[in-house]
Write a structure and sequence with these properties.
This protein has one domain. The chain is 69% helix and 3% strand. The protein is built from 5 helices and 2 strands; from the N terminus they run αββαααα. It has a two-stranded antiparallel sheet. The chain is elongated and about 50 Å long.
Amino acid sequence: MDTSTVPLRIAASLFILDGVGFGVFAVPAIVRVLQHRPIPIVFGFPAYGGGPFERIGLKSTVPLLVAFLVVDILEIVAGVLVWQGSRGGAILGFVLIPCGAFFWWGFALPIPPIFAAARSALIAVSWSRLQ
């Protein structure tokens, strides 16, 4: 592997890890909300509940959770495209930051902003390698 592609591969991996890691828990949360059951507890925390959204009166609903799942899926797409060296994937990733930030804040998710900062920096230093 060409060492100049390593930052892009790491950035792509962060996109995919973030999208899969949080998307996989969105599906059972959607199912539970559809069944009028409480949000599942994952690693001791409510999956997409109990954060600032709820404090301002916005409960986890199916449309809200589906919108978050769509962002997660698009992060996976961005990751695959960045892995392939696509500038379009990088642009998609940058466009997804404010969309994701809405959910990261509302669901009190501390890890995705760190991933977003890291992958943004990695893409920025490798921008000229993208096609």
